[in-house]
Structures are given as C-alpha cells and as structure tokens.
Design brief:
Blueprint lengths: L19 H9 L3 H13 L3 H12 L5 H45 L1
Length: 110
C-alpha cells in the first residue's frame, strides 16, 4: 500500500519565530537545529536565508491544532505505557530483593 505523502506545515510545538525550521525538520525527519543552522548560513551568504525564511513563512500553512493534539495524545499513551513498565520492573526488583534477603537470612542462621 503506498505511503500517504506528508504535508509541510509550520510547526506549532517546535518554533522560535514562526515554526518554519521546526516544520521543515518534522517534515524531513531531521533535527530542527540543523535546519536553523542552514538558514543562518544562507542568511550570511547574501541574505538568502532571510529571504527563503520569509517565503516559507508566507507560503507554508500553520500546523492544524488536531495534529498537535494527536501527537500529544500519542506521547501521553507512550508515557503511560512506560510508567506501567517501570512499575512492573520495580515489582520484579522487590521480589528479587525479598528472595535474596531470604536466602541470606537462612545462610546466616546456619
């Protein structure tokens, strides 16, 4: 089944000025800092970075609220799963400590 093309948006969560670099980074799945560095480097080369940034700012739509909410719900589910896993690990550690203490107690009695 063909993968649905991703739409380029200005980011609502990863932004400093208008979310252009954050949106590009999310779209291409790279670090936003790298995109920002590229824009600054282009800005130093005859001001092209500033021109490109403004063009992207004007032409790229803002990310819809629903997508941010959907991502935050996914993050919430991930954190809840992680919390359950941590509780499970804590219980296993408690059980192992209890067994270890029980074995040490019987060795000290002999």
């Amino acid at each position: 089944m063909p993968k649905e093309p991703k739409t380029l948006y200005r980011s609502r969560k990863n932004h400093i000025i208008a979310g252009v670099c954050g949106g590009l980074a999310e779209h291409f799945e790279i670090d936003a800092t790298l995109v920002r560095v590229i824009f600054v480097a282009l800005l130093l080369i005859h001001g092209l970075g500033g021109l490109f940034y403004i063009i992207f700012w004007i032409l790229t739509p803002r990310e819809p609220d629903g997508e941010v909410r959907e991502r935050s719900e996914g993050a919430k589910e991930f954190l809840e799963d992680l919390e359950r896993e941590l509780e499970s690990l804590k219980e296993k550690i408690r059980q192992k400590r209890a067994r270890t203490e029980g074995v040490q107690g019987s060795v000290n009695k002999d």
